[in-house]
Task: structure prediction
Amino acid sequence: MVAENSTPHLHSAVEPKQTFRRALDMSSRAAMPSLFIMFSAILLSAPFGIPGQAQLQFGIAMCTVWFWAHSRPRSMPALAVFLCGLVVEIFSFGPPGTVLLSLLVIYGVAHHWRYGLSRLGFLMGWLIFSIFAVIASFFQWALVCLHAVALLSPAPGLFQAALTIGIYPSLTALFVWGRRTFANPDQA
Amino acid sequence: MLSIHARQVLAKAILPILILLAVGLVLLGLVRRPAVDGVRLMATDFMAPAYHGLVWPQGRVAVWLTDLRGATDLAKENARLRDENRALRHWYDVAVALAAENGRLKNSLHWIPQTVPQYVTGRVTRDDGGPYSRAVLLDVGSGHQVRIGDVALDAAGLLGRVTEVGPHTVRVLMINDDASRIPVTLASSHGDAIMAGDDTAAPRLIFYPQDHHPVEGERVETRGQSTMPAGLPVGTVHYSAPNRPVVVPDADLDRLDIVRVFDYGDDDSQAPDAPGRVRVKKLPQNPLTGPLPFSWLPNLPDMPGRGGQ
Result:
């Protein structure tokens, strides 16, 4: 694991007593990223009339999985990614399975390369994420075309990719803060 | 308890297994899309009250903003409303006179009145589009009689057609969706055309007669076909580019709130069979036993009504 257990004072031999309340606190902090994806997917499916709501669902899920899979994989296991993907699938009306598959693939990449990504720095990580966001949107567009048996305009897919890439820095800032504070199981 | 080795194998195998499941879902979506959409519709049915709660503050804020805007400019708003009221009174008188004249003319023509369509009114539960489609979900309550193919209208014009029906919720595919094709009639040039959605705000007009091009600004109405009745207001023609007529919809497709879904019933106006194609019952080969009194007649036609075959 890369970023977790990085604070030295938490490695002391004196551990807090493991009570039920502490276990609950730890698990809720660990589940924070998954709950964030599910909550935003459900919230963004409400009819607020905000432009790009459906694209935001996809973008938030992609950014969250990418960040937590490489920075604290214990807070984002594969099964949680699958469950989050299913929730996003249920609360969106795109071609079935594409968001789920994209999330799992991006999880696999981030989890597999987590040591390399932690050395590369933010900008390089963002660039690699951008490439995968474009590939995922292209895959979604290809499936929609296949389903419609017609060549549709790729503009909505490009907009979705651009939105996903665009919200990544601000979400990363939120997650970096959360990793230290409210989503850090070691601080329970 | 699993051994460390078994746990490691399981940890390595879980991601490929989940990816395979996701691929299975993609294939299921391609082959049996209605099954997946049914699950989504059930989830929306379940969440409908929560959605109303979520958008309630937004609605209240919008009402306050409208009130605030009206309050800041009361004198001007009053003058505008007086003018509008005067114009509406004039149009009311015209409409009453026309309705009376229409009634008289229909009476003298022995006009057969059309059946009054059944309709339900619902609130838009959620915008259900996504990047590549334009659709909305309506909360129409339990015990509704809405069927697939029913016509959805807002206060101003045609909105779309019902594509999926759930216990409380129905999904309406809007006229600007890429999959939407609506047969329409152009009111003044009297040409027929197909209005094809292309995921933009204004659907295109295609398959119009080449000698009757749509005229800029003319009204577009539905052409009576299957469950779609004739004469529903759709919008007006506009040329977004040379030789590219589009329809500017009357309905406000971006800000939908209350929508009515009409059931015009099945199309029972079947055309009669062509005279030469009347199917007749075959007579028995030998209906009468024994020698016929007129068996000397040459070449009797054995089947009436076969002239066209």
